Automatic annotation (TrEMBL):
Matching Pfam families: Glyco_hydro_17
EC number: 3.2.1.39
Enzyme class, broadest EC rank: hydrolase
Keyword tRNA-binding: no
Family: Belongs to the glycosyl hydrolase 17 family.
TM stretches of this protein: 12-34
Matching InterPro entries: GH, Glyco_hydro_17, Glyco_hydro_17_plant
A biological-process GO annotation: carbohydrate metabolic process
GO MF annotation terms: glucan endo-1,3-beta-D-glucosidase activity
Keyword match Membrane: yes
Keyword annotations from UniProtKB, A to Z: Glycosidase, Hydrolase, Membrane, Transmembrane, Transmembrane helix
Protein name per UniProt: glucan endo-1,3-beta-D-glucosidase
Organism: Gossypium laxum
Highest rank taxon of the organism: Eukaryota
Length: 385
């Protein structure tokens, strides 16, 4: 079916749905129900095809929808290991587990080939070691042509992460924004600028202050490093990609950070920040970034959690039970938003798909996988959709 036929079908279906609803319901009170429950469910059903059941009588329309299918969860596909499945097997494993979003850290050609036709949404990373070369416009154009244009639209690129956790003190920091700008311009020249957003991925160490979240700030380095990046994101409509690890915050300060606060298991409010009540550390970190973005002139810049996870072994609190608790509670929480952004679903990428036996130096770095390299699940009853 061609594009126009698909849109014509959706339009007719929408009109039929609205007509039926209006004909069988009084106006009073219906607008809220229609806009907040039935229409979102209806469009999800149009997209998913099989997630809804409807029961129609002369005066009632009961529309049950599996809204859980819309959880904005992805999984990072790290490859620092010598015992992982083939790229084709990995992509098939994503699909069979209902994982519709992926992050990779470099333009691995075998991965990109395997992603063709899957419709898995992709964060494609630019390695830190490549940043300097991409400050040359022609090199950035070649990079985009070889790694994006050559695979688009068969591969569903969502974001380009230009650098990962580059610190302001790192010599590579001077290359991040010029590389972002050049990749953005190359995408625009290829008529892909409106579809694929260009950003960079940062860690919580970029925050000079994170407590309370309302006082979040980037600190003294922001005018020369992060503020120009925030301005770029605000202008282009791209989100900031943030790696959020309550685990590392907890083990770094266990005297002042409670384990239940890090695991989403605290009963009730742990601390109050003005009118906002915080019950988990994940929300506190994300909202500190939102406050820092506002202070840097990026009040309209959204956040995508580009990594988060909990290790299963290695150091203190790294256990299978704790990791299971973290992942289950996180997945159930992401649609709720944060105290600063209530009700706003948080696009979140779990780190990582498999244990990576060549990471280090800490033992925990080798045990962040949701699955072992033989594709056996490490945690029970975790649903990604």
């Amino acid at each position: 079916m061609d594009f126009l036929s698909v849109n014509r079908t959706l339009m007719i279906a929408t009109y039929l749905f609205l007509g039926f609803f209006i004909a069988n319901h009084t106006i009073t009170g219906s607008i809220s129900l229609l806009s907040h429950h039935l229409l979102p469910c209806f469009y999800i059903c149009l997209e998913k095809g099989n997630c809804c059941r409807e029961h129609i009588t002369s005066k009632s329309f009961i529309f049950e929808c599996d809204l859980g299918a819309t959880k904005p969860i992805g999984v990072c596909n790290g490859r620092i290991a010598d015992n992982l499945p083939s790229e084709q097997d990995v992509i098939s494993f994503y699909t069979s587990n209902g994982i519709g979003k992926m992050r990779i850290y470099d333009p691995n050609q075998a991965t990109l080939q395997a992603l063709r036709g899957t419709n898995i949404e992709l964060i494609l990373g630019v390695p830190n070691g490549d940043l300097q070369s991409l400050t040359t416009p022609s090199t950035a154009n070649d990079w985009v042509q070889n790694n994006i244009v050559a695979f688009s639209p068969a591969v569903n690129f969502r974001y380009i992460a230009v650098g990962n956790e580059v610190e302001p003190s790192d010599p590579a920091s001077q290359y991040v924004l010029p590389a972002m700008q050049n990749i953005y311009n190359a995408l625009a020249s290829a008529n892909l600028g409106g579809e694929i957003k260009v950003s960079t991925s940062v860690s919580a160490s970029l925050l000079a202050q994170s407590y309370p979240p309302s006082a979040g700030s980037f600190g003294a380095t922001s005018p020369t490093y992060i503020t120009p990046i925030v301005s770029f994101l605000a202008t282009t409509g791209a989100p900031l990609l943030v790696n959020v690890y309550p685990y590392f915050a907890y083990i770094g300060d266990p005297q002042n950070i409670r384990l239940d606060f890090a695991l989403f298991t605290a009963q009730g409010t742990v601390f109050q920040d003005g009118a906002l009540a915080y019950q988990n550390l994940f929300d506190a970190i994300v909202d500190a970034f939102y406050s820092a973005l506002e202070a840097a002139g990026g009040a309209n810049v959204e956040i995508v959690v580009s990594e988060t996870g909990w290790p299963s072994t290695g150091e203190a609190a790294a256990t299978v039970d704790n990791a299971t608790t973290y992942y289950k509670n996180l997945i159930n929480h992401v649609n709720d938003g944060t105290p600063k952004k209530p009700g706003k679903a948080m696009e979140t990428y779990l780190f990582a798909m498999f244990d990576e036996d060549q990471k280090g130096p800490a033992e925990t770095e080798r045990h962040f996988g949701l699955f072992s390299p033989d594709k056996q699940p490490k945690y029970n009853n975790i649903s990604f959709s």
